[in-house]
């Protein structure tokens, strides 16, 4: 049941919202949560792949945001700042779940390269970037299915668009490990989406005949012939 | 495969770029992988544009915990 209707449009302007928050205006607090909680929750859910933990991250994020507001200097936008706090909260939770072992990096570099299996073209779809409900569900599911080390890297690099160096620093791993994990994650996501998108383009004119032997792609080991 | 990823990120050295492009011209499978990898990235880049709505009551619980604190 929705609460009393309040006009939050007075806080559409970020400066006004900040002023309201500093005055401890409860309406400003409501506006803050309404505006930013969906993004924070989506973020937390993607990183943790657990709805209960994601909710915990949202709670702790907003508590920290409210406590740190006096120190917010406006160097970035409020949204960016909140998003950063949310990412840190989620990553701290992941670290508490299972300590990172440096051995992981070694183990990953010894695994064979993943070879793409799905070789059907996808029809280029300008609407795709708008992410209809079904495609969104597919990608979110594919992301949730990734092993945690791969999932975290692809979220920071490809959704947040942090650099390799920034991602490495945030996660406490080497830039080389970031690249290996990112490449694996992207290939797995591609495979997961290909199954869904290739079937959607069936029947569309596709001049390219897929190779009958998946797995014949050359390994990347230097200049190609 | 790592080359295709580096190529998409603009991190492949120029010499290897030329080699890869030469290979791509002759290899339809690699072209498909490159194209679909690029589309995957575009989908990821747009993921945050319209976050899904909060589960019901979560907003109320957050506000309640902030007021209690």
Question: What would you say this structure looks like, in words?
Answer:
The complex is a heterodimer of chains A (225) and B (69). The termini of chain A are far apart. With 225 residues, chain A is mainly alpha-helical. Helix content of chain A is 61%, strand content 0%. Chain A is globular and about 60 Å long. Residues 203-225 of chain A have low confidence and may be disordered. Chain A has 2 domains: 8-96, Rna Polymerase Sigma Factor, Chain: A (Orthogonal Bundle), CATH 1.10.1740; 106-201, Arc Repressor Mutant, subunit A (Orthogonal Bundle). Chain A contains 9 helices and no strands. Chain A has helices spanning 14-22, 26-48, 51-68, 78-97, 103-110, 133-145, 148-159, 164-171, 175-200. By secondary structure, chain B is mainly alpha-helical. The termini of chain B are far apart. The model of chain B has no long low-confidence stretch (mean pLDDT 88). At the A-B interface, helix 2, helix 3, helix 6, helix 7 and helix 9 of A face helix 1, helix 2, helix 3 and helix 4 of B.
